[in-house]
Amino acid sequence: MIESVGTPGLWAGFVVFVLVMLALDLGVFNRKDHVVSTREALRWTAVWIGLALAFDGLVWWRFGSGPAIEFLTGYLIEKSLSVDNLFVFVIIFGTFAIPAAYQHRVLFWGILTALVLRALMIVGGSALLARFHWLIYVFGAFLLATGVRLFFHKGEEHHHPERSWAFQVLRKVIPSTHRMEGHAFFLREAGRLVATPLFLALALIEISDVVFALDSIPAIFGVTLDPFIVFTSNIFAIMGLRSLYFAVAQLLNRFEYLSAGLAAVLVFIGAKMLASRWVHVHALVSLAVVVALLGGAVIFSLVKTRRAGAPAAARASSGT
Question: DSSP H helical segments within the chain, as ranges?
Answer without folding.
Answer: 8-24, 38-63, 65-81, 83-95, 100-131, 135-153, 165-173, 197-221, 227-239, 241-248, 258-274, 283-318
